Amino acid sequence: MAPQSMFAGIKVIDFSHFVAGPHCTKMLAEHGADVIKIEPLTGDPARLLPMHKEGRSAFYVQHNLGKKSMSLDLTKPAAQKICHDLIKDADVVVENFSPGVMKRFNMDWAVLKTINPNLVMCSISCFGQDGPLASLPGYDYIGQSYAGILDMNGEPDRAPVFADLTFGDVSSGTHAYAAIVAALFHRFRGGEGQHLDLCLQEILFSYHEMNVQLYDASAGAYIPKRAGATHGVAAPAGIFKCGERYLFVLALGAQWDKLAKTMGREDMLSDPRFADLSARQENKNAVNQAVQAWLDTIADPDKALKILQDERIPSAPILSVPEVMEHPHTQARDMVRTVVDPVWGPLKIPRTPLRFSAFPDIPEQTAGFLGEHNHEILNEVLGYSAENIAALEAEGVINTKQV
Amino acid sequence: MTRKHVLDGVKVLDFSHFIAGPHCTRLMAEAGAEVIKVEAHTGDSARHLPIIREGRSGYFIQHNRGKKNLCLDLRTAEGQEICHELIKTVDVVIENFTPGVMKKFNMDWDAVSKINPDVIMCSISCLGQEGPLAKLPGFDYIGQAYSGLLGMTGQADGYPALSGMAFGDVSTGAHAYGAIVTALYHKAMGGGGQFLDIALLDCLFSFHEMNVQVYDASGGTQVPKRSGHQHAFVSPLGLFKCKENYIIIVAIGAQWNNLIKLLGREEWADEPRFANPLVRNENRDEISAEIERWLSTVSDVTEAVRILVQENHVPAAPVLSVPDVMAHPHMQQRGIVQTVDDRIFGEVKIPGAPLRYSQYPERLELQAPFLGEHNEEILREKLGYSAEKISALQASGVLSEKNI
Fold first, then answer.
1. Which residues contact residue A297 at a Cβ distance below 8 angstroms, ignoring those fewer than 6 apart?
2. What is the CATH code of the structural domain delimited by A237-319?
3. With a threshold of 0.90, does the pTM exceed it?
4. CB–CB of B144 and A248 under 8 A?
C-alpha cells in the first residue's frame, strides 16, 4: 500500500536554529515527517528576527512550519536523557551548532550511533566539522566570503555588493534534505545509519559552475573577477537600462544572429570582431554597447521586452520582490504560499520548490510556540507522568512561552 | 549486500544539458547511480564552453563525470524507439529542455508513464512547466531576474549587479536531486512513479528567507530593495573597506555589544537609536564610519579578522577571490577543491560535490564521457541489439560518436 505522505512515520529530532537547519527540517515536515524541534529555554534566536506581532516572529513562522516545539536546557543531564530517549526511536537528527557543541551536550555522532545505529545524523555548519576554520562563528555571508562568492558581485573597481537574501542558508538546507533522504533510501535498502557533514562554504563553492575550472585550466591566466552589471566572460550578457527599468539580455549562439537582426545591426554579423563567441567575448564592451544603444532607441521597457521575447531571445525585466509576488506567472504557479498563523493570521512566504505529482498539495501547517508540545511529547512519546513533568518545569529543564 | 555508494543500482536516463540537469545527475553519479546521458549529434552545448583543450571542454568535464554517453538523433523514430526501450529499464528520467520539447520527441510524462508507470520523471525548467512565462527561453539569470534576486543585488541607486556564477542552475540541480531521492524513497515504500516539476524560478524565489514575509507582514511598508554593500533591513551587517581589501562583519545579535566595546563606543549600548538591528539600520552610516575608522588603524584584513573573531567573538571574514579560496588551507584540508584527471584534458580542478556521507568518505573515481562513447555498450548490453543493427543505426545517422 502506498504511504499517506512521502515520509509518513519518519521521526526527526531537530536541534537546529536560524535558517539552514530549520529550512531542511521544514522540508522534511512538509513531506510528511514527524519533526520535534528542540529549542533552548530562550528559544531559537530566529524568534527575535522581524517582523514581530505580539512577540511572534513571522521569520520564525516561515522556517518552522509543521514542527512540534520542545524547549529544553540541554546543559542539564535530565534534558540530555530526554533527548537520548527520543533519539533511540528516531530516524533522523539534524543540528547546526558550531562544531563541538553537540559533543558538550553528549550528543555527538560517537554517542548517538551507540544509542541508535540506524540513525541518520546530519550536521550543518559554516565550514564543516574539521579543518582550520571549523570553529569560527559562521553565518551565510561569512561562508559566501570564504567561498569566493562576494568577491564576484559588484563593479570591478568598487566595493563588492551582496544579495539581500541568504541563498547559502536556504540552499544548504536543501542539500542537507537531499543528503538525508538519500541516506534514508540507502538505509531502507539494507544500509546502516550514518553521519552527514555538510557545510555552507562547500555548498556555496560548488556554485562556481565555471570559475574554478577556468582559473585552473587557464593556468591562472584567467582570474575570475566581479564584472558589474555584465557577465565577466560571455557577451552580450548582462543588465541593461531601458527607460526607467533594468532588463537582463543574453544572446549566445544562434540567438546572437537574431538579436543583431532585431537591432538592425546586420553589419555586426559580417564583422570579424563579432564572428563567434570568443571574438564577441574579446570585444564585449562593443557588443554590450550596441545592445544598450538599441534599447535607448526603443526607450520603452515593455515594448523592448516584447520584441525580444517574441524573437525568443533570452531576456527578463529586473523585478523587485513585491513585483515578483504580484506577477501573473507567480500567481499561476502558486509560488507565494499563504499560511495562517495563530498570532499573525494569513502570512505570505515562498513555496518550497519541490513539486511532486503524487502529492501536489503542501499540507496546512503552523509553527509551534516555544515549548508548545513539551507535555505531549514527554507524556505520549516517553510516558512521563504529570508529576515528572511538573518537576522538570520546577527545575528549569523545560519551559513554555506563547511566542 | 555491499554497495559502492548510497544510490548504487539506481538507473537514470538523462536528457539534460548545460548545468541544472547535469549538476543533478552529477550528484547522482557521485552517489553511485548508473547514469546514461543522451546527447544530440552536436553534443551538449556545454561541450563548447571554455576552457577547451584539444577539443575537450573543462566545463563539460566538471558537470558530467561518471555518466555513460549515448549520442543519437532524437528527431528520428529509431532514436525515439531506443529511448522508449531504455525507459522501460530505468528508475529515473531527467530532462531540462524548454517545456514542450520532450512532447515533440514523444517522451513527455504522458508517454513516459505509459511506457513505465513506476518511473520517476524529473523535468527541470527555468520558469516551470506551466504558467504565462513557461515557454520563454530560460537561463539562470532569467530566473534570477524573475525571482527578484537580481533586483536585490547591487547599489540602491545604480545597476543591479550580476553574480559571476550560476547559483540558480547549481542549486536547482541540488533541489531536483532532493526531489528525486524523495520520490525514490517513496517508491521503495510502496508508492508508484511520479512526475517532478522543478523550476529555477521556484528555487531562487525560496532563497528569500526574509524579504517576502517582511514585505507582506509589514503591510507593504517595508519594501525590500537592494542596498549595495550592506543589508537592507538590519545593521551592522555588510561589507567594509579595510586597507586594500574588504571585510564582511555580522554583528546583529549579542555580538553588537562586543563590537561597540572594541570600537570604544560602549555608550551606544544605552542609546535608543541603536536599540535593535532594525533601528540601527536607520543610523547605519554613523556605525559604518566608526567601523571603517577602526579598520583604518589595523595593519591588514587578516589582522582585522583575527581581532574581531578570535579576540572579540564578532563574526567577520575577508572577502576572498576565487584563487584565494582555492589556495586556502581550510579548502585544502577538507578537499573542497577536487582535482580530476581527464583522459584528454589531463588534470583539472573543480569544486568537489558538497554532500558527505560517513559510510562513503571517499569520492568515487569518475570520468566524463566522450560523445557517444557508450553507444554500442548500451545498445548491446541493455537492449540486446545485434552488431548488424548497431552498424545500421550508425550508417543511417541515428547514432554518432566523437572523441570530444
1. none
2. 3.30.1540.10
3. yes
4. yes
Cα–Cα distance, B322 to A205 (Å, whole number): 9
Under CATH, to which class is A11-206+333-394 assigned? alpha beta
Q: What is the pLDDT along chain A (403 residues), one digit of tens a residue?
A: 567 789 999 999 999 999 999 999 999 999 999 999 999 999 999 998 889 999 999 999 999 999 999 999 999 999 999 999 999 999 999 999 999 999 999 999 999 999 999 999 999 999 999 999 998 888 899 999 999 999 999 999 888 998 889 999 999 999 999 999 999 999 999 999 999 999 999 999 999 999 999 999 999 999 999 999 998 888 999 999 999 999 999 998 889 999 999 999 999 999 999 999 889 999 999 999 999 999 999 999 999 999 999 999 999 999 999 999 999 999 999 999 999 999 999 999 999 999 999 999 888 999 999 999 999 999 999 999 999 999 999 999 999 999 9
Which of B31, B48, B324 is closest, CB to CB, to A182?
Answer: B31
Dihedral over Cα of A187, A193, A199, A205: its sign: negative
**Domains of chain B from N-terminus onward:** 11-206+332-395 (3.40.50.10540), 237-323 (3.30.1540.10)
Q: Where are chain A's structural domains?
A: 11-206+333-394, 237-319
0.95 surpassed by complex ipTM: no
The answer to whether A335 contacts B201, with C-beta atoms less than 8 Å apart, is yes
* CA count, 13 A, side-chain hemisphere, A245: 19
The catalytic residue among B169, B197, B270, B341 is: B169
The gap from C-alpha B181 to its chain's centroid, in whole angstroms, comes to: 17
Q: Is B169 annotated as catalytic?
A: yes
- Name the residue facing A213 among B62, B186, B189 (closest C-beta): B62
**Sign of the four-CA dihedral A41, A92, B122, B60:** positive
